[in-house]
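subagent[fold] <- orchestrator: predict structure for attached chain, return tokens only, no commentary.
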Amino acid sequence: MKCAKCGAELKLGSIYCSFCGQEAQIVSDSSLLEEELLRELLKEENKPASAGKNTGKSTGKRAKKSHLPLIISLTCLVALAVVAVILVVTIRNNNLNSYDYQMEQARSSVAEQNYVKALTCYERALELKEDDLTARQEMVEVYIAMEEEKAAISLLHEIIEMDGSNKWAYQILIEFYHQAKDYQAIIGLKEGVEEESILELFADYTVLPPAFSLEPGTYPEYITVELTAEPGCQIYYTTDGTDPTKQGTAYEGPIVLKEQGTLDIRMAAVNELGLYSEIEEGTFTVKFQKPSMAEAIPDRGRFTEPSTIELVGTEGSRMYYTWDGTDPTVDSQQYTEPIPVPEGNNILSVILVDKYGMVSDVLKCNYEYFP
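subagent[fold] -> orchestrator:
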């Protein structure tokens, strides 16, 4: 071991250096060597620039030789950095223009509940694939999670415009409108729908129109019209051609037509949600018709023996007759039982008066009775 001050060899166990008297501090040979080298380097650096030519040339050569590996290393590192940057930029551009990558990033963001980033990725995916429905549907779910109902509803309408058979979009929209109690919006959403599977979604919001107990048309007698609707529905109707959903009268019982004339009935049913059915309408006309003529049995003949004539007419009607060839009236003899045939050549004239006072044509029959 050597003295830390003078470098002299120290005897084993010495407390002070025998040459310089310095307190012994044990220093390894390698540490002294390092210190020596450091001193030499400092001496070299402190030499003036005007040193001898040979010394300057050799020093320059040594400097060049010592810096060359460093330059090569730095050049390689720069090259590697440039390649890495190019690679990163290329990958980033590829990802930016990849629909699948954007969708994957969006779904990962949704799983992390980073909805803003998810929407950004979905929007980029739609830029790459404008007609995509999957991205739009997943965006709707994100908007719902964010409680952005207006944005979700707008996007759902966009999906339906693109795909009129998208049952999922219809179902979500109906749920939104139901929660908002906007039942008219549900009815409006139904307009133009023809696919049966989608129409089924509107079953709870569809009110069937009421029905008439009689077919609209012309009747030769007084009639009674009843209106019927689904259970839980109220019927409103008008007879002046106005809108029953706005000016209608609540139906409470049968509508009786007990005089000749025409009645136009327009009606609609409304359910407990306040939804109206389509308007149903019908025209009913009461126009009495002349009853058919009575029948006589027999309707003619020659007799030598006493005989009677039987008259047959419509049930509920009355029949009147004469034997003198004149047309009968309600003041003539009323038929109640078979009529005896009088002697001679006679003309039986008969009219029928129905329950409404309508008079039939005159029936005329010729009978000859000569005993």
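orchestrator: received. Logging for downstream: Residues 266 and 344 are 62 Å apart (CA to CA). The first strand starts at residue 211 and ends at 212.
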